[in-house]
């Protein structure tokens, strides 16, 4: 791997632990003003000291994050659909690699929609982006999207999607946690991070999911709603860090959360 690519990846995946806590705040690119992300700056700013990287679009980066902040950026470069449109899977590349360089990002992220009408389009988007990004040393994060079909999040579908993403050249892959997650990790030759998905009932549920994913081969999380839709987002991200970076048990991480929220 080229020096620039390695350097950018190590900004995101911390060499001290080999793990990462990425903060996902890109939801508005198809959901609009998502609950608790209506004012993105207000949500993002208090969490910055605890996040290893920030995943977002160029619009929220330019408007809601100061350029003197030192945090690796994972720039979402796919989109072109909305939650009220006809087909969430019809994504295109929405941001050029020149723009990614201009914004000094550490990686670019794009969704693939395997098994949908737009499978071919989104997979060739990925292959094209890998060619473009590779030529300037920028890693690509492929996101195995499921659109509105949340029930698709099972081991067969996700293992297939993750493996295809790796075959097409993604440097790392973001997927969902599911039963038998170890099978996804075993058959995916690049690092995996998990999305949190919709807000779970309790903080402990989210901490357990992060822990299970790490135990079964993920190198980290790229979590959004389970952090910033918590009534106490800063204690929550600290607890997630304890699980991901320090191997703290979920129940002990919950104590960190409970103490910190006081
Ligand atoms: C949308 C995304 C989101 O960043 C992702 O779903 C992570 O956020 P959350 O933990 O809220 O699910 O990639 O396609």
CATH homologous group name: Aldolase class I
Structural class: alpha/beta
Number of domains: 1
Q: What gross morphology would you assign?
A: globular
Molecular structure report:
The chain is α/β, with parallel strands linked by helices and 262 residues long. It has a single domain, classed as Alpha-Beta Barrel (TIM Barrel). The protein is 42% helix and 15% strand. It contains twelve helices and ten strands. Strands 1-2-3-6-7-8-9-10 form an eight-stranded parallel β-barrel, surrounded by six helices. A two-stranded antiparallel ribbon has the order 4-5. Strand 9, helix 9 and strand 10 form a beta-alpha-beta unit. Helix 7 runs parallel beside helix 8 and helix 11 runs antiparallel to helix 12. The longest helix has 16 residues. The protein is globular, with a radius of gyration of 17 Å.
């Amino acid at each position: 791997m080229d020096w620039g690519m390695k350097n950018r990846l190590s900004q995101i995946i911390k060499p001290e632990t080999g793990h990462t806590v990425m903060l996902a705040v890109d939801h508005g690119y198809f959901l609009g003003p998502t609950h608790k992300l209506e004012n993105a700056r207000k949500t993002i700013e208090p969490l910055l000291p605890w996040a290893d990287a920030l995943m977002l679009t160029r619009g929220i980066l330019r408007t809601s994050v100061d350029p003197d902040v030192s945090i690796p950026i994972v720039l979402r470069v796919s989109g072109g659909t909305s939650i009220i449109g006809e087909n969430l899977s019809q994504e295109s590349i929405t941001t050029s690699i020149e723009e990614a360089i201009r914004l000094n990002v550490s990686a670019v992220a794009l969704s693939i929609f395997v098994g949908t009408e737009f499978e071919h389009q989104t997979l060739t988007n990925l292959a094209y982006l890998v060619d473009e990004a590779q030529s300037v040393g920028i890693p690509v994060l492929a996101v195995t999207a499921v659109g509105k079909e949340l029930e698709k999040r099972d081991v067969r579908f996700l293992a297939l999607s993750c493996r295809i993403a790796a075959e097409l050249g993604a440097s790392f892959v973001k997927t969902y946690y599911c039963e038998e997650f170890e099978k996804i990790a075993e058959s995916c030759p690049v690092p995996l991070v998990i999305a949190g998905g919709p807000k779970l009932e309790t903080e402990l549920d989210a901490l357990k999911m992060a822990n299970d994913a790490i135990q079964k081969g993920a190198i980290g999380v790229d979590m959004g709603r389970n952090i910033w839709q918590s009534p106490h987002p800063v204690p929550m991200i600290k607890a997630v860090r304890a699980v991901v970076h320090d191997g703290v048990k979920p129940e002990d991480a919950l104590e960190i959360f409970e103490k910190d929220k006081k």
